[in-house]
Specification:
The protein has about 260 residues and is α/β, with parallel strands linked by helices. Helices cover about 40% and strands about 15% of the residues. The protein contains twelve helices and eight strands. The protein has an eight-stranded parallel beta barrel, surrounded by five helices. The radius of gyration is 17 Å and the shape is globular. Bound molecules: 1,3-dihydroxyacetonephosphate.
């Protein structure tokens, strides 16, 4: 983390878990300890149908609400899709884009990720763009090439003043939901490389300012060490974000 130049952001990705009726009790638990949320921004990325309840439950707190996906289209005949303007109007402030589960199970391409990123920025949402390599890509030594390509195509055509508003989440696919965490050194190497891509595409200032998260089996036991790396500015947390105590412990680690 480097709080002098950029925000630390801890985001929970609930994925397709919990029910709308679970939101209030979860929020009560988190709010009871909200004093701990001092030096980092906290976001709960809930399933779309739970966003209104989450916005209501976290009103008057420092905890923001995010979505897990967004349409690249503005409006129109796109059954089942949700636009960035709709998310924004419902009170969401953040949106996850290009999560590996969407790339893998829903055929989301780099071009679609770029379109969604443009739509989110246009609507004033803070995008959390996910990138990450598979296990075989890591084992064959092409991780950094993969990540550079993913970041560059996501950012294609995005001007510097908009790029400053983007968060990148490095989520190695082999570490998601597996209990296998990247070592702090592995995560730092990739996050540093992502920052270098920003330096190359924009400038040193943009590189210094971009918040880069790590995600993939982050938990209370490993969060502090991961977050102590200079280029890791937060976490995107799946499983552990479903448990308010665990999420609080990670928030606590980010406040150190
Ligand atoms: P886990 O924390 O469950 O590994 O999930 C990470 C993730 O995919 C967050 O977006």
């Amino acid at each position: 983390m480097n709080r002098k130049y950029r925000k630390t952001v801890i985001a929970g990705n609930w994925k397709m878990n919990l029910l709308p009726s679970d939101v209030k009790p979860f929020a009560e638990r988190l709010k009871a300890e909200a004093g701990r949320v001092k030096f980092c921004d906290v976001v709960i990325c809930a399933p779309a149908v739970m966003i209104p309840a989450a916005v209501k439950a976290f009103r008057d707190t420092r905890i923001a609400v995010g979505a897990q996906d967004v349409s690249e289209h503005d409006a129109g005949a796109f059954t089942g899709e949700i636009s960035a303007a709709q998310l924004r109007d419902a009170g969401a402030k953040y949106v996850i884009i290009g999560h590996s589960e969407r790339r893998q199970y829903h055929g989301e391409t780099d071009a679609a990720v770029n379109g969604k990123l443009r739509a989110a920025l246009e609507a004033g949402l803070t995008p959390i763009v996910c990138v990450g390599e598979t296990l075989s890509q890591r084992e064959t030594g092409v991780s950094l090439d993969m990540i550079r390509a993913q970041v560059k195509s996501a950012l294609y055509g995005i001007p510097a003043e908009k790029a400053r508003k983007i968060i990148i989440a490095y989520e190695p696919i082999w570490a998601i939901g597996t209990g296998m965490t990247a070592t702090p050194e592995q995560a730092e190497e990739v996050c540093g490389e992502i920052r270098a891509v920003f330096r190359g595409m924009y400038d040193a200032r943009a590189a210094r300012a971009v918040t880069i998260q790590y995600g993939g089996s982050m938990n209370p036991a490993n969060a502090a060490e991961l977050l102590s790396q200079p280029d890791i500015d937060g976490g995107l947390i799946g499983g552990a974000s479903l448990d308010a105590e665990k999420l609080l412990a990670i928030i606590n680690a980010a406040n150190q």
